[in-house]
Amino acid sequence: MRPQTSDDPQTRTMTLEAFADTIIPGEKRSSDDRAIAGAAPGGGAVAAGALELLEWDATGVSGGLDDFARALNTHAQAHTAEFGLPTDDTVPPFVALSYEERSAVVKRLTAPGHPEKALWVSLALFCNMSYDSAAHMSTADAIAAGHPGLTSMGVTTPDADGLWRFPNFSYGRPLAALHPDTTASGSPA
Amino acid sequence: MTSVERTDVLIVGTGFGGAIAAYHLAAGGAKVVMLERGPWLGTDDFEHDYKLGSSYTRIFDFVVGDGMSTLGGNCVGGGSVVYFAAMPRAPRFVFDRKGSIARRMWPSAITRDTLDPWYDRVAESIPITQQGWEDASYSGGLWAAACNHAGRTANPVPAAVDTTKCTNCNWMMAGCRFEAKQSLLFNYLPAALAHGAEIKPLHEVQKISKNEDGDYRVHYLRVDDEDYRETTGSGTIDAKIVVIAAGAAATPVILQRSEATLGPMPHAVGRYFSGNGERLNTAVLNEDRVRDVLGLDRGDGLAYAANQIGKGPTVANWDRLDGSLPEYSRYSLEQLYFPPGLGTILALTGGADPSWFGPDKKEMLARWRSWLIIFQMIEDDNEGVFGPPPERGNADRLSQQMLGIGRLSYKPTLNTSAAWAMADADVKDILERDGLATVTPWTNDLVGAYTVHPLASCRIGDDPHTSALDDGHELRGHPGIFVTDGSAVPGALTVNPAMTISALAERAIPGIVRAAQERGVAVTYGAPAPSGATNGRAGVQPLIPALLRK
Lengths: 189, 550
Hints:
The complex is a heterodimer of chains A (189) and B (550). Chain A is 46% helix and 0% strand. Chain A is an all-alpha fold and 189 residues long. In chain B, the strands form 3 sheets. In chain B, strands 1, 2, 6, 7, 8, 9 and 19 form a 7-stranded mixed beta sheet that branches. In chain B, helix 1 (16-27) packs parallel to helix 11. The chains are: A mainly alpha (189), B alpha/beta (550).
């Protein structure tokens, strides 16, 4: 049965997960996973905790998530109609789209000149942050827990006190000639 | 009711412009109060953590505008606490720039020669290391080697970093946990406090009005220390002299909002904003080519893979800083680090259909360790304009910290766009040679262009129509109000601006002292450097009579 409104928690969650998965895609959690399109191997923004971050009131977007989900599904319906795409009433309209079609919708909503651009960019920003910096949890904890984004990016493990130190940091030799007009204090002339 | 709070000098902001003014005026005998919208954090508060609510988001502000987003400090110490501490002087030709007004935009009294003694004064006050190649991070060394391979030069960048304490953790934007970065928390600010200056954090100045006796009244809101969207009270302080140094993204907003109470502002308040011509490129390096073509090896089996390691920018290419070249074709190309959180979303994938999101972007992120970020500083056209102020502060805050929507509009002119395109092509030429890397610019489509060095929104000049301040930094038509932050700098500098902002602030002090004296404040000019050193003071002495000539 198709959920009727975006206020339905399941509809809202699936829709937002599908949006986050469009920004940083990941692999499906199970064979019947519809929200995650499965467009890339490994965990994506959803596995990284995008929903946790979006739901945190510190972001300033949590209060608007119902509206985001509802609007996204409205845009998806319009997109489906415009391009004559097949419909699927068992899931929310945005979730029903293929990864490529979800991308096309996101591209349109975040393009210069779109009246709602700022809203969708802010939503995308937090989805990206959940992956590239795990902004919903302590960084050291995230690395220790094998956070998919930080792990994939190769962010190293901090020292025991939670601080990073790199004793080896330099090739340690001259690698170019200095500009001929450099002053004694090392500035441009 | 409490009695009206009064001071001789009220300073808005505690970054370079505010701290330098506070120190000299307090040391000279004036009663000084500083209002800072952000919190007051010390060394032990600076965390290595991207979690919202950590020091990274408490002290750093990202304001999205229409066509331009600005990043800046939001704490006691301002930009000096979050910046990457590069402290080059501006090249000589910068002071002869004409920019969008087709005549020299700097006051006639300021040239590199007349500013050098003030630069020296700053250099004596903020310890600046002339870095050597042994200080250059892997990413700086890589940039140098690539420049060299392309027949270019490259320079280690002078920086306010004590390299003996630096751990190359690359967390400078969250505040330095190791006291290596020589922020204002270690020089001007403690010296100002020692002379009796007072700092009030979490006090966000909204506007200024004038009392019948000619003093100014500064109106502030108190900001919640965790959720900056919330305020917890309000108040006013009366002062004979007001120094505004809230940063180029906030100073003009305070003045715009004060227009109703102070009367008309100069035309240039909130106009001529410059993003210092900034733009970023991301190179994703081919590690094998780095080894084979450039001969680089870390000694641990890796050629590079060191994006995370370092201390911000350590090496710059200055080949285009040549005064014989036409304006808008001169720029520097500086190796930089930009942390995750805000530092990956704008990077574009390569190929026929570049994208900031999706499967290819995810693959690009998987090679994050092999990223090299190059920072362009071109000459832009001062095309930024501030719209009417928001309800409070300089933005409608979206998140509890860090993220807000401001009123700055910036539509790059053909000059600016062409300069960025030229610099993009140059970076590509250097880094894509012999298959070293794939280079793409950051997109300007999401949050517009962006700058970590907002400038010129309330600038000095000789022409009242195109400058808000006279060459002594006094606000035209409003005697006793001075502006000493990046908004006073006339235009893009082609290098990192902190050194020039500071030198201009130092140069403004004798005039501010005299204005205070004229309003009956017992204050003198002539404090040594915060450390007690006096060479800088002696160096500027011959310049002061001309500065004070009206």
